[in-house]
## 1
Amino acid sequence: MSDTVAKELPAGPAVKGKLSRDDLLMRGGMAVIALYLVVTLVFPLYAMLSKSFSTFWFDLGQYEVQVSNEAGVFDGKAISFAALNEEMGLLSEEDLTAGSDGRLGVTQFFPDFSFRSPVLYKIRATTDSGRYLVGSKLHTGTVWLELDSNTFRRVQLRPIKSVGAGNFVKFFSTPALFNSIRNSLWIAVVSTVVTVSLAFWFAYALNRSCMRFKGFFRLVAMAPILVPSLLPGIALVYLFGNQGMIKEVLFGASIYGPIGIIIGSIFFTLPHAFIIISTALAISDARLYEAAVSLRASPWRTFWTVTIPGARYGLISAAFVVFNLVITDFGLPKVIGGQFNVLAVDIYKQVIGQQNFEMGAVVSVVLIVPAIFAFAIDRLVQSKQVALLSARSVPYQPNPNPKTDRIFLIYCSLVACFILGILAICQYAALIKFWPYDLSLSFRNYQFDRMDGGGWSSYFNSIKLGLITAIAGTSVVFFGAYLVEKSNGFKVGRSVFQMFAMLPMAIPGMVLGLAYIFFFNNPSNPLNVIYGTMAILVICTVTHFYTVSHLTAVTALKQMDREFESVAASLKQPTMKLFARVTVPVCLPAVLDISIYLFINAMTTVSAVVFLYSPKTTLASVAVLNMDDAGDIAPAAAMGMMIFYTNAGARILHLIASKGILRRTQAWRAR
Amino acid sequence: MNLRKTLQIPLAAAILAAAPVTAQSAEAELTVYTAVEAEDLARYAEAFNEKYPDIKINWVRDSTGIVTAKLLAERDNPQADVVWGLAATSLLLLKSEGMLEAYAPDGVKDLDPKFVDADDVPSWVGMDAWVAAVCYNTVEAEKAGLKPPTSWKDLTDPVYEGHVIMPNPNSSGTGFLDVSSWLQMFGEEGGWEFMDALHNNIARYTHSGSKPCKLAAAGEIPIGVSFAFRGAKSKADGAPLEIIVPSEGVGWDMEATAIVAGTDDLEAAQALVDFSVTRGAMEMYNSGYAVVAMPGVAKPVKHFPDGLLEAMIENDFEFAANNRAAILEEWQSRYDGKSEPK
């Protein structure tokens, strides 16, 4: 319809298509999955945010005191502590803010106080919420309590709950806390620069040279994804610790601190950067290079004007992914960080060490900020990306060049040595009886039941978690992606759903885990029953890794023409039948990819589940952390390697299964 | 429709499978929170069931910090009936929140008074003590040319620079008991002066209390400030360790038992607390701990250092609990703010 016609005619009633049963079903399904995301993501984050604003302070007006004379006779005059404080100008507002465990001694309000004096005191709260301790016993209520001087000195006022930004003020006025921001950013930036540079040349060698053993290098580069992020930390202790095999290399510098965190971060983020950059380098237009040659550009100039601009989106994306992984990682700095405080570990220290949930929530909120920033910039950059390949492009084919190929081979071998070396050290450490005094080999370190961390059952729990997460998660994610991709109309609902699906990417695992405590461990929450069970671990893991799975599913679904839906509709077939009979089989490769992604991540994740596991649901990855924490480093390495072998096995099974299933379901792809 | 159903099954199954765990609260079942070593739990339950065969114990075990965090988080809806084997410092925190049910078990008068809550009707009763000590790796110390320290003050000698590891009091109960004992022994000012000097020698602070000793056992560091129990275990495993009891005295905490206020089955809970202070129970604790709450019961435990009981300071738990927040804050601002290890 052209504009002119629309202007001439008077506006009629809005035309509304009648919703079919199928449409309603699909919208209903979408609402259910959107509700799932709201309950498992938005509500917990809200609970955490409100916790960070929950403060405690001493309400001096809530308490009254009477003082007798030397003979122990009271004149009946009561005075509130607020009035006393004002009179003496003793405590400022800042002094009166406290943590949940705050205590305020009362004798400071009485300058002449002596615990030997015969003076008697009476104290009471003026409201029911006023609480105070005598010794360690809690008292409440408005009944006067008479105490002698010696007992009165043991009176401590307890703070009451209130709402305000006090926790944030405290965070930013405590150097020990806010220094972590600088440390975290510094670690993340350095690791990002190094990792992206290393990954770029690795990917460049694999895509743009004629070096040998490319398949092997590709395989090696992916290996770190199969282990928990803290495993390289354990290997570094064996290499560079005070009893390290090659500690001389560091020239006396300590591996415990930024050096260790950065080396370990490079190890575990390398595959992520490599995949992204490799994808970006894989496609390029040979005509650009031909043009560069005919314009007599030097290889150096060609590199900067053709190669780098072509890969820039990949580089930027890789940089933000690495930045986010490092700044939110918790396992590695915990194992090898020494005195170098970072935000993610601070959350753990506040919650587990000091039971200060409010401050934990504050640090979480602070940690979300850079993560969301990185995420937002990345999305912005991605949306500017334009197609590099047009129909007329000629794919670039590298030409053999013995000299550069040899350099690349050496380079890639070095990187591969680094990766395999770290894994080999862990395996070796796991088999040594008692490093460094008894180097004989034994399986003693595999007797996990003798250690903290839950023993072998935590290993089997992890496998169970991986399997349930893979099955349940893939179903939810793929079905959700299908509904959002293929339903008709309902634009607002679909874009809201898309937004929810992208959100988990920006939320650090640590923060998600803590938010789950606040939300699910609340007795008035009907979902409280899942707290401490395997179900909450599954839900947390699915939500934590929702975004990447969702994007994989959406990409696969986008490749399917919407015509399928139209054909199904005209054949009067229900959409669900189409989904089961056509969509799922066609997208099976993507479905398998999502499930292996979820399985591997469920096996290796530490940060999200460290607050949520219960004694019955201990996990292998958390056991690695706890065993290392207790000083059982060799068993920790042994368990870490068990995770590696399990994931490698799962990966191989996945490859075999994909091949078999693909041959049966994807026969149509071949002519 | 079929598909919708199938994809809901795993979630529903997971929730159903988990439900009975929280739903059970039959008469003779007790949910007992504990931080006792995992390998001892079965033995403890067995001994208890010999006397009370119809009370079943459901253990919930984790490290001290986590059990404490869990109990505090469940303040408004306690899941535990009894806490059997948690640091007294943690129990004092719970007590000051009004979460403990005061109860004087039969036989409480047979215990050493310093192992019992000072109130008329005690809120908690002690089991065994958990005493600070220094783990000293003789092999590594010799390599570094060190002499064994005999006192806390010795450890501040510059020769030990970079050779000492201790737990961070902000994340470890053992670390806190060290700091609190130094403040009690050396006084407020002297204590902080001592820690200033000690800080110069510390290579790094760990998150757990047993790690310094395990690191010393592994030769990662010559001297680890930890606790005697851990040292004795590592020594039994064959580590070249000497366990040193500093001459000024050592801080300690105890594992203790308490009833959680609002328990469904007070009678069974009281039976458990009664049992926890019997002579038999004390002998049971003695297999791992050299110092137990009932005087005259403890037999020497292999590899434990001599003179441990005499070296234990008069620990003022009330002081420790009431000043905990302030002490930790002060400690953090003095030593945790320095990010770079030197």
## 2
Amino acid sequence: MTWPATRPGAAVRSSAVGRSLPSEDSAAIVSGALEYVTDRQVDGMLHGAVHRSPHPHARIVDVDTSRAAAEPGVVAVLTASDVPFNRLGSDPHNPPVLAGDVVRQVGEAVALIAAVDFPTARRAAALVDVTYEPLPVVTGADADAPTSLHPGGNVAGTIAFESGDVEAALADSAVVVDVDTTTSAQEHVAIETPGGMAEWDLGKITVWCGSQNPGLHRRFIAQALQLPLDDVRLVSNPVGGAFGSRNDDPAPVYLALLAWSTKRPIHLHLSRTETIIAGPKRHPYRTRVRVGFDRSGSLRAIDSHAVADTGPYVTAGRNVLKTSAELSSGPYATANARFDGTVRYSNNANAGAFRGFGVPQVAFGLETAISAAAAELGLDPVDVRRRNLLRPGGRHSLYGHTVSRSLRALETLDAAAAHPWWHERDAWAAESTPGPWRRGTGIAMAMKGVGMGSGKGDTARARLIVSANGEVNIWAGPNHTGQAIATAYRQVAADTLAIDYDRIHVHVGDSELVPESGATAASRSMYAGGSAVQLVCRKLRAVLDESAVVEGSGVSFDDVAARLVATGRAEYDAEFVLPDVEDIGRIPADSLADYAPHAVYGCSTQVVRLEVNVYTGEVRLHGVVCAVDAGVAVNPGTTVGQAEGGVAQGIGFALFEEYRLDDGVPVTTSLENYLIPTAVDVPPIETILVSGHEETGPFGAKGMSEVVVVPTAPAIAAAIGTATGFWPRQLPMTPERLRAGLAALEAA
Amino acid sequence: MKVNGTPVHGYDPGARLLDVLRDHLGLRGVKEGCGVGECGSCTVLLDGDPVCSCLVFAGQADGRDVVTAEGLGTADDLSPLQRQFVDHQALQCGYCIPGVVVSAAAHLAEADHVSEDSVREALSGNLCRCTGYSKLVAAVLAAADHRDSP
């Protein structure tokens, strides 16, 4: 790009947005040169380790650190009493930093070690002597609990809402389908495990760590250490994956505690096993869904009841349930909808944020019910969905709020259904060769809100400084945990400013420099962060368009930049507050944030083609078609990458990922027995970017990275049902479960 | 042993090759993702064969050639294979990618015929949680095409 001084109102040339530009750190990544937060090292740094509970629920009678502290090379052993404010958050149900009186899950941190090298730290961690008195174990959200994990009982939260009259509508529906589904605790398996480095220097602490929410982690650390917020700096870049696991990960607080206590640099890198045992999971759900249709296939009612297991403490559970409630009616329009949900405590894994955030669980129930209803009605599953879709600008079935005109539910459905795999599905199935393999094709769809929702004051910010040498630096958030979001921000900046791409530099992840912009979560980064970048660039652009700044012929941007600096007009800030819904519908105005409905939703429809071995229950995936609505894709290659990665996680959720415990004791504790998809498990994925435009988003963009996880499992289930006649209700659909289901079908 | 063509000495033969490469030699492109040979993030070439360096004692590499992602090409001078990964946007967080590139390089060096299936098989020991593998496979196939064309 050159440097055109466009006039206000003139069309700005769009040449960066819409291009598949590689991220700036790509060359460093492929050559192994990029230093991640856990790669960081300085001379003289100490190494950390964590002593963790072996019990799912026990009273701590005594903690004796004398043997650990006496180990040569050990510099510090910290326990609960060493933490100035021992809680991660302000709610009494939030987890402690270090367990003091009671442990409530296996893997809960009890003590922290700092030592001169890692082997010493690890050895000392094993020498912390804790005397436990085991307590009764709450093994699940459904179980009759033998004890209360918190003074108020084992209910962490509830949400209930009804529109219309669901019971009456179900009573006079021609067809009512009732499905009872369960979904598993899924582990994120970001390939870089938690950790990083921290330094204490002149009364300030700096922590380099993985974080999807540097502002939140900064507050956790300031609170735990009782430091002023401005004395805590968090740098979260570069980071090896997140998917929700780094939303409220305690490792940054451990790092800060150890550095603050020892006054020395400290390194910590958790093992895979302790990450799996102690880290958050996707909430396991039991969801019962009833849908009622009239004979022609019009949807009369959706009734969804969900129970979620959040583990021992409040982290994201209540908000996960809130999101389940909002998306319990999916992308469908009906006059009668009800959600009744409960999130409960247990001594299982702590469950938190995971890509999709409560939607995959309830959507599996809903889509399974819709597919079953189509079969019972003898109608095409696409036709049934198409005739009941929520329309752009329409009203949400449960809450009655207005949804954005950018909704592309119909277009994603039509795009997926137009694929030959869908309309040639019967012919393909008929070509099955003799033998155990049966062919099937399934379809499912979903929608997911973009941002934290109405009433939350969800805000992203950006800061821009023009340097005297003609460079434009922008500090923006949300930050990058693998999405190449800084590249997308740069593309937005280039087209807003209409200056050379090479002059623009975007920085993310450093709380000292990036103004508070919230979490890399809720499909909000592109939409919210991109909008803030666009706004801050417009401020500079407006100044550039003033003729006084650029007067004179042949003026270069170097000259302009120097003039801006000389005249004190080189620095700009902007914030983007995500718009609330235009009309809140049936939600009481004073409790809008309790329901936090969205105006902007992304949609995805997926078609799965597969074979099932009816003797062994094995599933062989042939391919996935993923139609997704991203509004305008700022970086199409990156957007497709997000879709492909989301589908792969959906495949794992559907077919094999299950974090299992036995009476609160983890069973699947490594990647040897907690399996995620490999390159041979994931089939070719064909992504269709449906054309759309969200008018409140940067250049028409909106978020899409979560919704793509959601339809995969119900589409696979529908394909298995079509292939075999057995319609799975339990995730993951392991060979054992499929074989058992097929055997029951044969016996019936 | 030789690492990326340079003879190295003075390491503990009982240490994991992974730790010698990372801590002794500062080759931090060799990542540890699990420590038990399941994720493939620490993959290096040992006399041309891809191995998980977390499962190899340094002493087992005595007298042998070790190549890491850093040895295939540098950020300023990428190998054709690494260039294909960049051009195909075949990475997201990137933490697994040095190991993936090493496995792919071994496959391209060994295989007479490279196909989508052979590439998926060759990468099946490298877990990637971000990409869904499609772009990784496309990048390796493009590198194979480039290699095979005159």
